[in-house]
Amino acid sequence: MGQGTSRFAFAATKAVAGTLAAAVVCGTAAGALSAAPAVAAQNAPPAVAADHAPAAAAPPGTTVAASGAPLAGARLPALIADGLAEASHSRYVYDGATRTVKVTVRTTIRNAKPDQGLMYFYWDAHGIPVPKGAENVRATSAGQSLSVRFEPTEDKFTTWATASFSGLRYGQSRTIDWSYTIPGDPIRSEGYTRVGKGYATFATQAVGDPGSVTVEVVAPEAMEFTNMVGEFSEKKADGRRTWSTSSATDEYGIWSPVSLRNPDQADTTQVEVGGEKLTLLSFPDDKKWTKFVKKRLTDGLPVVEEIVGQDWPGGLQQIREDVSPEVVGYAWYDGQQEEIVIGEDLDEQLFYHELTHTWVNGETLEGRWLVEGFTEAIARRVVKETGGKVDRTGVARDADGALALSTWAHLGQDFQDVDDATEDYAYAAAPATIERLVADLDDEEFTDLVSALLEGQSAYEEPGDKHVWDTPDWRSLLDLLEDRAGVEGAQKILKNWVLTDKEKQELPKRAKEREQYFALDEADGDWAPPQGIRVRMTQWEFGRAAEERKAIGDETPEAARRIQEAAAAAGFPAPSAARDAYEKAGTGLDYTDLTETLPRTADVTEQVSDAVRKADEKRDPVTELAETILFTEDAADRAVQELDSGHLDAAAEGAEHTTQLVDLARWVGILLVVVVLGLVLLVVWLVIRARRRRRTAPALAVQHAPGVSGVSDQAEQWLSGRAERPGDGSPQPSASPWPSAEQGSAEPRATLPRAAGPEAVEAAPSLPPHQLPPPTGPWDVEPAEPAEPRRGAATPDDTVSDDGQAR
């Protein structure tokens, strides 16, 4: 809920309340004196003497006799409150054809003030408040019209209508029938009644004694009804709906602003936000309001999400334009109806305030000052980020209506007993206090604080922990400010603006136990203290926190530190079973188990740590090879796994086994060296023995092929690869005497070039293959003589053609 910023919002509330009081006291009392003033004074009621005895204290226009008894024509508020019985029935009928509200009020008054001796009392006038601008105001009684006069009130939008009649003596009664028409004021005008096509907003009232007042509101069946105060019942008949109540909302009778709306006639606009569709309901043709709200939704909602640090939570179906916020001084977010109701004024700070209430409300935070303070602080940041102008109201700690903000109570459903001064002070002081507390935080730190607070995180848990504790209040805020945000001086601000004297007494107890808690947190290393203690600290149950801290003693957190140090020394993580047992302990039995098991866990962890470090120690390659063969590292890993699972006996046995393997690896390494040396000597002996059995044979000389008869030097050079192709002059590759892959295993031949003359040339002899001498040994036979190369036979192609050319 946020205060409206209309120029007349709070004036309206005050004026209506004042008007109701005036309706009761308005009248005229007269006393007729037939005896001496002393007698009249003696018989005058104490209230008269007390209120009017000093002449200087009499209100303007009041005549006071020497005895203190008022003369005829004097106003007597005290007497009227005690001496006038009043009943009234008010009926409001919406007329869609004329776009007005027709009002009838039947009031019955009875003089209940007995005559007192020679003095009697009578009333000759009675009045009711009507909206300024009301038309056709009439009053009748017993079929006769009464004269009506109008007087201004403290509220410039309300007029006092007074009807005059003959004096009403004790025991007499009179019924007055009032009627008038409410035409309504234009949208965004100064007045606070609105009547138009498909909508109407106005204040209903019926002044009288409890049980003697009723209010009825009649409208077409298609219209929806919203009331701000009291409980109305509904009936349907003849195409109409009638909402009525007879329950007094205060000591003067009934007062309740109401709204009528026909959704079919209202302008409806759908806006998609965060994957959901919202409905905007505005007065017909009020496009300016719709445009304003739509833009703030689409542009501002992502900014709110960023500042709050959370996605939009939903819980909103529609945003409705209404004048009721202008009347009562508040706009509001209704989580049950899932709607925001704001006035016609285009107030973006108020709009973002109500939008932020979908995150920050009574379900997410405890304490009205905390809800309204953070909501307004966030709204101001959104306005600044979106380029708007931030409106801040200054406030002093000793201003009118000042109170400890923690005592600022939520308004009742009926908005009864509202202290305007207190509301003004608190609505200004709450956001001012929040802004003082977070003044040193940057945007990211502010977002982290708001997000953690709304999620119900504990300052004694790791950031991001999703465990939801009790609804966060000022205590949660103080813990997060000091422990997460590092804010100094938060206690001083809270003591000055928020806390009562009783709440301030909690702070020294908190300081004392927090000192012990942080000492415990230091003693147990990186682990968090047991959950039971963290819960007590979060809930500010410092006495129980001290008891549970003593239950685990000093040896248990020291054992936790030993476990962590031993694990870190060997490079393996601290055993999860031990950590879970320590951090999740929350009962007396848990603490007893810890005191028994955690010290032994520390001993076993140190034993496993020693074994792992021995297994990981750098040694000579032979010993490390032996450790690999013995699977020493696997044994160490199994010991760590058993320790992590909480199997202490198995972990201890594994550590001992690992240590034994490490010690054994040295001797296994020596044995490996002996075996390897023996194998090397054996191989050397075998090689030497084999060489003794071999003998060396002379290498065979390589024989060259003899020259071929009839082959020229040029041909020999060509065959040996040194010749140049005739007529070319360029060097040619050497011809290999060995067969190619395509030639297979056939014996190679050398082919001579054709002779230029007519004579046939003798074919060149075949060249022998190049042969390597075979290996020799004592078991080899003598090599055979090389075969004489065969002369190649002439082929048919080598004959002489008819023209004398060799082919």
Summary?
The chain has 807 residues and is α+β, with helices and mostly antiparallel strands. The protein is 38% helix and 17% strand. It is built from 23 helices and 21 strands.
Task: Describe what this molecule looks like in 3D.
The chain has 23 helices and 21 strands. With 807 residues, the protein is α+β, with helices and mostly antiparallel strands. The chain has three domains: 2-32 and 72-261, Immunoglobulin-like; 267-504, Neutral Protease Domain 2 (Neutral Protease, domain 2, Orthogonal Bundle); 532-667, no CATH class. It has an eight-stranded mixed sheet. The chain has a six-stranded mixed sheet with strand order 1-20-21-19-18-17. The radius of gyration is 55 Å and the shape is elongated. Mean pLDDT is 79; it is low at 5-81, 696-712, 721-764, 777-781 and 789-807. Residues 730-741 have a biased composition (Low complexity). Residues 1-40 form the signal peptide. This is Peptidase MA superfamily protein. Residues 721-807 are annotated as: Disordered. The chain crosses the membrane at residues 667-688.
Give descriptors for this structure.
disordered C terminus; Neutral Protease, domain 2; 807 residues; 38% helix; 23 helices; 3 domains; alpha+beta; elongated; Immunoglobulin-like
Topology of helices and strands:
Elements: E1 2-3, H1 9-25, H2 37-43, H3 46-52, H4 77-83, E2 84-95, E3 100-111, E4 123-131, E5 135-141, E6 144-145, E7 148-152, E8 158-168, E9 173-182, E10 194-196, E11 199-207, E12 213-220, E13 224-227, E14 233-237, E15 240-245, E16 253-261, E17 267-273, E18 276-282, H5 287-308, E19 318-321, H6 324-328, E20 330-334, E21 339-342, H7 348-356, H8 368-385, H9 420-437, H10 443-454, H11 474-483, H12 490-497, H13 501-504, H14 506-523, H15 531-538, H16 542-552, H17 555-570, H18 576-583, H19 588-616, H20 621-629, H21 632-644, H22 648-692, H23 713-719
Parallel strand pairs: 2-12, 18-19, 19-21
Antiparallel strand pairs: 1-20, 2-3, 3-9, 4-8, 5-6, 5-9, 7-8, 10-11, 11-16, 12-15, 13-16, 14-15, 17-18, 20-21
Helix pairs in contact: 5-7, 5-8, 7-8, 8-9, 9-12, 14-16, 15-16, 17-19, 19-21, 19-22, 20-22, 21-22
